[in-house]
Amino acid sequence: MNRYAVIMAGGRGERFWPESRVSKPKQFLQLMGDRTLLQQAYDRLLPLIPSENIYIVLGQQHLDLATRQLPDIPPGNFLVEPEGRNTAPCIGFAAIHILKRDSDSLMLAIPADHMIRGEASYRQSLEKAFFWAAKGDYLVTVGIRPSRPETGYGYIEREDSGMDTHPPVYFVRRFVEKPDAEQALKFIQEGCFFWNSGIFAWKPQTILRRIELYLPSLAAGLEKIGSCIGNQDYMAMLKEVYPKLPSISIDYGVMEHSREILMVAGEFGWDDLGSWGALDRIVPGDERGMKVRGNFVGYDNDNCLVYGDGGLTAVLGVRDLVIVRSGDVVMVCPKDRAQEVRKLVELCKNNKLEKYL
């Protein structure tokens, strides 16, 4: 019962625009199946962790949406950030709440927007991560064996010899930023590089000590917030301090500088659903590679992802495109440029078209 999980649900999902909007980002969407990404992340945790020990970190504008989607989570377990400040503040924010509640706790942190295949193996990896987090002051992460030379993910280089099995566990040699295509291919050939899944396990006091060591200004702010948890000054202190916290990821701020990091080799299917291109990798297509959701008619098309939430999408003689019809917006781009959809979001902002965001 000393196991806790934090689902990080504060992302904006701009590369899934126009389906992902400010009022309803991708983690609250049913992109695959009849449950949202947030609900699926929660469902996968339940065999390991009771709902009363699961926390959600998110923004105020999505609190009502999240509580409707996850009615079994206690209201006090929704931790509202006054402003998104990246994953290091998010994780630290959750850690001070868990530590306040349970001084003998273990903490798991996962993103809300991952695709997982092989849930039994996934939970086995989380069990192993908890096991090693309990054994000492380790920072434990889960790495995914790469299936392609992906340039959109960070990588983890493990040591040569493992220290556990089923699934294997290794000490981490280093974290590596997103590589170019040549370097990514070399990583796969070398065999000791894994994708950085963004899944972590540790004791709350362990990660807070590392934050204090490497991000002292963040630690100072978290200490101020933590001192007010449970009293009437909490909200005022949170609103004053949180927006001033440094905006930095846990990878940049802590993991890349730390020692005593362990990696569980995750032996399950995984994808970071970061863009329409990621969804295209996962969704099965017909004999011509057409992957369609919604009302559609088409003739002589090849290898397109067509996503519609209403009306009719009619397509003739095109190939290798992402075509999204969502509400009052139609978005079309080549598949190999799906990572750049965020540029369209920026153009909307610059041209005072925020009503479409």
Compile the SSE list and pairings:
Elements: E1 3-8, H1 37-45, E2 54-59, H2 63-69, E3 78-81, H3 87-101, E4 106-111, E5 114-117, H4 119-135, E6 139-144, E7 155-158, E8 169-176, H5 181-190, E9 193-202, H6 204-214, H7 216-227, H8 234-241, H9 250-253, E10 261-266, E11 269-272, H10 276-282, E12 291-293, E13 296-299, E14 305-308, E15 313-316, E16 321-326, E17 329-334, H11 341-350
Parallel strand pairs: 1-2, 1-4, 2-3, 6-10, 12-14, 13-15, 14-16
Antiparallel strand pairs: 4-9, 5-11, 6-9, 7-8, 7-9, 8-10, 16-17
Helix pairs in contact: 3-6, 3-7, 6-7, 7-8
Structure explained in plain terms:
With 357 residues, the protein is an alpha/beta fold. The protein folds into two domains: 3-274, Spore Coat Polysaccharide Biosynthesis Protein SpsA, Chain A (Alpha-Beta Complex), CATH 3.90.550; 277-356, no CATH class. The protein has eleven helices and 17 strands. The protein has helices at residues 37-45, 63-69, 87-101, 119-135, 181-190, 204-214, 216-227, 234-241, 250-253, 276-282, 341-350; strands at residues 3-8, 54-59, 78-81, 106-111, 114-117, 139-144, 155-158, 169-176, 193-202, 261-266, 269-272, 291-293, 296-299, 305-308, 313-316, 321-326, 329-334. It has a five-stranded mixed β-barrel. Helix 2 (63-69) links the parallel strand 2 (54-59) and strand 3. The longest helix is centred in the middle third of the chain and has 17 residues, at 119-135. The two termini are 41 Å apart. The relative contact order is 0.14.
